[in-house]
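Something for you to look into today, if you have time. Just paste the record in under my message, thanks.
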Amino acid sequence: MKRYLILLLFVSLSAQAVFAQIELQPVAIVRLTKSEPITVRQLRTELENLAWQDLVQRLRRPPTSEEVARTAHSSTVEQRRQVLDVMINERLAMQAAERDKVAVTDNELNQHIQQMRQQMAQSIGRVPTEAEFAEAIKNETGQEFPAFREALRRQATVQRYMMSQKESLFKAIAEPTEAEIVNFHNLSRSRFVRPETVRFSMISVPYGPDAASRSRAQGIADRLNKEIASNSAAFENVAMRAQLPNADFHAGDGGFLPRNMQAQQMTGAAFMTAAFSLGVGEVSGLLEGPQAYHIIKVTETFPHANLELNDIFDLGSSMTVRQFIWSSLYEQRQQEVLVKAQQELITELRSGNPFQIMENNLNW
């Protein structure tokens, strides 16, 4: 029995050693300025990252490691080849960028990451901690923060190198003319319709998932609602108290609420009905939402309108319909040139076959 266990352990260890050796084998070697292998393990990791991102979109939650492994392992040889081609292109561009002394500094990278944190702050209503930000990155991409940061550096470096090599293409982009803008507007008038909209201030008392939290929040909300009694001045007085330390409710601008199905699905039919039954300066009674109790005060109303070129496209901004169309047409042309620049650069970098693919190592 003892000999059997020793043999079993030896077989297991041998299998692990063989697997480790396979993982370290190159599936491709890039040789533009230096010899750089892409290992089976690196390709597997990239497939797992892509599988993670795909599963997040489909499942609406971070996937388990088993789900990621199963999805990545089920990839076909052709899919692996496609992913490998992208990895080869990136390494060719990185070697070329290094040769031509094109780089992204730590300060530039930090600024870009800080912008991402600010976007997350706008979403959650406060600046996330470093741990929260790293966790959000992990949940979205499947990558630990150091790996994500390095991937971001590579992407930014490749982008900068492409822009430096294909600058003439981007400088040649023609700006949209007034005739093109007018024609686009005439052909897309159904897109430029603003539904009836209200802007409102809001006092909110949030609650958690348990009954005790909900009961406590309702008690606070009932007290505030009684104090306000649908009075505009009283609403403002209560809203100011939300800024005090240890306030147990929130207050602020609730933004713009369009009268459409999507907004109703987000806020609820009762909230929508109440908001559009009020005039400017009028205050609602107590409204129950999925995560908080609310009291709202309408501050502006906007009728349904077909937007002309000089009208504001997005309430709360200064952008007109004309400016929006100009930006849309120009960005479309930029995207077309970006695709062309990428294709040209890849063709140039691959000229002379400065890489080798080990086809046998694509079969797992």
Q: What stands out?
A: The two ends are 34 Å apart (CA to CA).
